[in-house]
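Task: complex structure prediction.
Instruction: return C-alpha cells for all chains below.
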Amino acid sequence: MDFEALWLTLRLALGTTAILLVIALPLAWWIASGRGVTRALVQAVVALPLVLPPTVLGFYLLVAMGPLTAPGRLLIRLLGHPLAFSFAGLLVGSVLYSLPFAVQPLVAGFHAVDRGFIEAAAGLGAAPAKVFLSVVLPMTSASLLTSAILAFTHTVGEFGVVLMLGGNIPGATRTLSISLYDLVQDGNYQAANRTALVLMAFAMAALLVIYLLPGMRKTDGRQADVVR
Amino acid sequence: MEGRPTLSDSSKPLLTVRMEQRVGTVALDVRFALTEPWTVLFGPSGSGKTTVLRAIAGFVRPDAGSIARGERVLVDRASDIFVPAHRRPVRSAGQTARLFPNMTVRENAIYGNGWTSKLQDAIEIAEQVMGLFRLKELADRMPHHLSGGERQRVSVARAVVSAITYTGPGTALLLLDEPFSGLDHAVRDDLLTELREWLVRWKTPVLSVTHDVGEAFQLGAEVIKIANGRVVQQGPVSEVLCDERLRLMGQLRAETSLDT
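Output:
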C-alpha cells in the first residue's frame, strides 16, 4: 500500500472539490435561472468530460500547458516551470474532468426550487445574493452535498487525465489509481488487491452517505410548504 | 369620503399605472392612479388583477406602458427602463403563502429587514405586527407546523413588516393579493380595522386585490373596478359598489320583465 499516493490522492480530491464548489455554485445557478443558446452551449461544454475519453482531455491540457502553445509558454514564464507534470497541473485537470459531477446535481436542485419562493423574497426587498444565500441554498443543501461527494469521489477515481497530464511522479502526481496500475504491471497482485480494496471501500462509503442522509431520501425543504 | 386620512399633502398620485399586456385570452389595457391610502382592485377572476399587481411588484414585464411610484419610474417600455423587484419602493405578498421553510415564523417575519443596521427596531416592529396578526404563540414554530390560514397570516404579516421597515427614500407601497382569504370573518374584521390604522400611521399605502365586497367596505377603501382587462370605474367603495348593486338589480329586473 502506497501511503504517499493515498495522501496525494486525498489532497488532490479535497483541493478539487473546494475549487469546484466555488466554480459550480454560481455556474449552476446561472444555468438554472434561464434558458437560451448561450446557456445550452455552456451546459454542453460542462457536460463534455462525461462523454470524452479522459485521455483526450488530458492530451489537450498537456498541449495547452506545454511550451508548444502561446498560453502554455506564458504560463511557464509566469510560474517558472511547466504546469504539466506538477500537482497544480493535476488540480487543473481534475477540476475540468469533474466539473459536470459538481455542476449537474446543483442545476437539478436549483431547477426544483419553486420560483414562488424567489419572488416572495424579492418582494420583501431581498437582493439576488441574499435570496441565493438565505433561501435557495438552504433549500438545496442536499444537492450541494451530493455535488461535493460526487466531485470528491470522481477525482479519487480518475486515471486517464492524471496519467496524461501528471506522468507518474511519486509524491507529486502519482495517485492511488496510478499506483494500482503500477502494482499490476509489476505483478504485485497482493499489494494491488489492498489498494483496490481501499478505493472500493471508499467509493462505497461515499455513495452510502449520499443515500443514507435523511435529507436525501425525503424532500430537502422544497415541498415543506405544501399544505399537509 | 369625509375624514379620510391621506398620505401626502400634495395631490400627486402615489402610483401611476398604464400598462398593456396579453394574458391568455384577455388583452389587459389598464390605466389608473393611486391617491388614497388603501385601494382595492376589484373584479371577476381572470380579469387580470393579479397580473397588474405582479407588474407593479416587478415580476411581470408589461408588453407596453409605464409604471411610476410618485416621481420614480419603475417601468417604461418606451425608454427601456425596468427596475428589478428588490430595488422598487414596493413590498408584496403573493396569493400563495411562500414561507421560507428553513426559518421560524419570527425569522420569516423579519426577513424583509434582516440585514439593516436597525435590526432591533425591525424586531420590535415584527413583534407588534405578529401580535396584530395573532401570531405571537406561533413565533418559534417552523412553517410546516402551521395550518393554511396561519401561513397566510404570516405571509401578510411578513410583507407588512417589510413595508413598515422600508429604509429607502420615501415609503414603500404594499401590494397584497387576496391577503385575508384564509381568515374567518370574525378575526378578519378586527384585524382589518387595526391594520388599516397601523399602515396609515406608518404612511404605508396599500394596493390589494380582493373578491370580497365586505372587505372593501371594512377598509373604507378606494375601489378600482376591472372588467375585461380594463378599468371600468374608480372611486370610494360606497359609490363604486353601490353602482355595482344598482347594475345587478337593473339586470335582474330586466330579466324578470322579459320572462313575464
